[in-house]
UniProtKB/TrEMBL annotation:
Gene Ontology MF annotations: carboxy-lyase activity; pyridoxal phosphate binding
Species in which this protein is naturally found: Dothidotthia symphoricarpi CBS 119687
Protein known as: Dopa decarboxylase-like protein
Pfam annotation, one family: Pyridoxal_deC
The protein's required cofactors: pyridoxal 5'-phosphate
């Protein structure tokens, strides 16, 4: 394909993409294909001779569309959103065009420098404490996903812990043996509701993993007292907690751990690295009404949120902020001769390879820059506030039928969780206490079962896509409507579908 053919193909592709967005609501949100649907639709090997673009593009509708789950669809209310926007797509297009693996500053100064500046913009936009700005000892870097960030932070925490403990030992075999022994005793911590990425990171890093209880009575949040007790219990066993993921917006219910209390704990446990995972909810910090959550972040070591979830930047884009970039560089900077250059030696430039696990990196800051400039602070705030409003709107709908629904968690960052009342339940009140606790347990099981049945009915119809979760033994349905095309009318529709599914079979 030469540049003339590229112009023609790109025109047609962009035209098709724009039409896709304009007509998205007319498609079913979920595909109806069976596993393995795709293989028979395309040849079993690479064509001998190249094909013209028209022939290739035609397969988007024929082969790809039938198997797509449409994440930008207004009836997609599952997981968390994965928002896209046209300026972000343009950023990705340029990134693809320049196609650099910009690991060192000299590999493309614009790529490094724009990322540093744009991450400072983002830090200021969400009112992160100044310690996370690049002007001081901190800074931001873009990673692909929150899971990568958590792994990067956890491994840096492990190595910082060991560096500190063995600071007085001379380098050599003995120190390496001692470090290896210590690694075997390290324990990473996360809320029982923390995203699975913390457990996975601990597994990859070869450390142990323990959860901190966050019961329903505590709003599914980790309190400072619960964290302290877990740390003390682990230490009593001769093990060393070295890392904790605090969550700002848990996956199941959008719970926020007690950041203020945990910030105070950092004085007691200065060697425990605290990372705040705000993968989804962090975007809400663009709004002043959420920024009261930010001051305690100054006490922690690192923070991340995914602009690809709720801030209109196409996947992938997880902003990772670090208070002391030296903590990353001391772990990840390994400079063989082929990576040496005068700029690196001068110490005047940032080489982002020293802040992360991979070497090469894409030009992701371009799409962030385009989005921030296209929407501006006010546009981004309006975008978030609309979804927060929709969460409250849906909550009111659910509450209006408390004969059917029972709210588990009130709207938090646009997410509402609820259960369905079973058709019949055994009233525990007034019973012999010996039977009452059995009856309560039975009632909880009935609630879970009724909720699961309704959830499965809704998703099997394919008109809406929702997710469910189990927290502290409670099976709940989650509804979060936060795409660019989200509107009250779609929440009315899903509410009616839920009522209908719950009422089916009721007497
Ligand atoms: N952390 C939280 C709180 C999440 O909700 C999620 C995903 O929804 C993740 C981490 C993982 O995100 P990623 O896909 O970017 O790794």
């Amino acid at each position: 394909m030469d540049s003339l053919q590229f112009r023609d193909a790109a025109d047609k592709a962009i035209d098709e993409i724009a039409t896709y967005y304009d007509t998205l609501a007319e498609r079913p949100v979920l595909p109806s294909v069976a596993p393995g649907y795709l293989r028979p639709l395309i040849p079993s090997s690479t064509p001998e001779n190249g094909e013209p673009w028209d022939q290739i593009q035609a397969d988007i509708e024929r082969v790809i569309m039938p198997g797509l789950t449409h994440w930008q669809h207004p009836k997609f209310m599952a997981f968390f959103p994965c928002n896209s926007s046209f300026p972000a797509m343009l950023g990705d297009m340029y990134s693809g065009a320049f196609n650099a693996a910009a690991f060192n500053w000299i590999c493309s100064p614009a790529i490094t420098e724009l990322e540093t500046v744009v991450m400072d913009w983002v830090a200021k936009l969400i009112a992160l404490p100044d310690v996370y700005l690049s002007e001081g000892e901190g800074g931001g870097i873009i990673q692909g996903t929150a899971s990568e960030v958590v792994l990067t932070a956890l491994v840096a925490a492990r190595e910082r812990f060991i560096r500190r403990r063995l600071a007085d030992m001379p380098e050599g075999e003995e120190k390496m043996d001692k470090a290896a022994d210590m690694r075997g005793k390290l324990v990473a911590l996360g809320s029982e509701h923390a995203h699975s990425s913390t457990q996975k990171a601990a597994m990859i890093a070869g450390t142990r993993f323990r959860t901190v209880p966050a019961p329903r009575e505590a709003g599914f949040s980790v309190t400072a007292a619960a964290l302290r007790k877990t740390i003390q219990d682990i230490r009593a066993k001769g093990l060393e907690p070295f890392y904790f993921t605090a969550t700002l917006g848990s996956t199941a219910t959008c719970a926020v751990d007690d950041l203020v209390g945990i910030a105070l704990l950092t004085k007691e446990y200065p060697d425990v690295w605290i990372h705040v995972d705000a993968a989804y909810a962090g975007s809400a910090l663009v709004c002043p009404e959420y920024q009261h959550l930010c001051p305690p972040l100054a006490a922690f070591d690192s923070f991340n949120f995914n602009l690809h979830k709720w801030l209109l930047v196409n996947f992938d884009c997880s902003a990772f902020f670090i208070k002391k970039r030296k903590d990353l560089i001391d772990t990840y900077s390994i400079t063989p001769s082929y990576l040496r250059n005068d700029y690196t030696e001068s110490g005047l430039v940032t080489d982002y390879r020293d802040w992360q696990i991979p070497l090469g990196r894409r030009f992701r800051s371009l799409k962030v820059w385009f989005v921030l400039r296209t929407y501006g602070v006010n546009g981004l705030r309006a975008f978030i506030r609309n979804h927060v409003h929709l969460g409250e709107y849906f909550h009111d709908l659910i509450k209006s039928r408390n004969d059917i629904f029972s709210v588990v968690t009130k709207p938090a960052f646009g997410l509402v969780t609820f259960q369905i009342h079973p058709t019949s339940s055994i009233a525990a009140a007034g019973m012999d206490p010996a039977f009452a606790s059995n009856a309560e347990a039975q009632h909880r099981e009935d609630l879970n079962l009724a909720t699961k049945q309704v959830y499965e009915k809704i998703n099997s119809k394919g008109e809406f896509f929702l997710t469910s979760s189990v927290v502290c033994g409670v099976y709940l349905i989650r509804v979060v409507s936060a795409s660019l095309s989200a509107e009250e009318k779609y929440l009315n529709m899903v509410f009616e579908a839920l009522v209908e599914a719950a009422e089916e079979g009721r007497v």
